[in-house]
Specification:
Radius of gyration: 32 Å
Order of helices and strands: HEEHHHHHHHHHHH
Distance between the termini: 108 Å
Strand content: under 5%
Number of helices: 12
Amino acid sequence: MNPSASKDRRVIEIEPGSICPRRESDGFSSSPAGRFVFAVLTVVAALAAGAAAVAQTSQTPKAPDTIEARVRACAPCHGDQGQGTDNDYFPRLAGKPAGYLKNQLIAFRDGRRRYAPMNYLLEYQNDAYLQKIAEYFSALRPPPTPPAVTDVSATVLARGKTLVTDGDQAHSVPACVGCHGPKLTGLEPGIPGLVGLHASYISAQLGAFRYGTRTATEPDCMQLVAASLTESDVTAVAAYLASQPVPADPSPAAQGTLATPFACGSEPH
């Protein structure tokens, strides 16, 4: 072998699995030719990576732009069919009157109801879009979920049943069924069902009405009712309602089928 030929030989070592030089045995990369080769290989690698990314993107199906797809964000808190979850403070939405649901979405958007994640999500949504969300959940009819097991006494449950079915006229407390329907599934178009809710949620909402942190359009009838309840009454009503099963047909009563005891701003008369 010619020693001079061996001396002039240039060797480029390639990292296994790579198309880029790892090192050069004699300073090849510092030469113009070496820099040119490295630049070419870098461009080729970039083009190959770009082509792979484009191919992967083209194979990924585009998410459908439907109301069903949009409200999937609601599922972690309210259930995939609006049936509620094990979390005490996130309510059932399915089957409630669309007018009620829309009113609540607007209340969160406008700050009459205060819960930071809901306030943030709805801040820039218009009424027409909120109506679509409300109609979607109102139409859902998921299988009934079993009621929660109560840990209150029979005496407390009995007091709760009395308030729900008969009210307490001596303290100006109307029966819940007078507005929320004989099956407690609500009244079209704006009074909600009370079944399928956790006791902690019901208690929290009655407290919010009592203390003015949740308000509705005037006349705010729930604020008047809640203000007439004692703390023990709130506990009793919440426990009794939470113990009631969701009926097979959770549809709200039709508008005009109940003579409600007084006017509510959220319910047309």
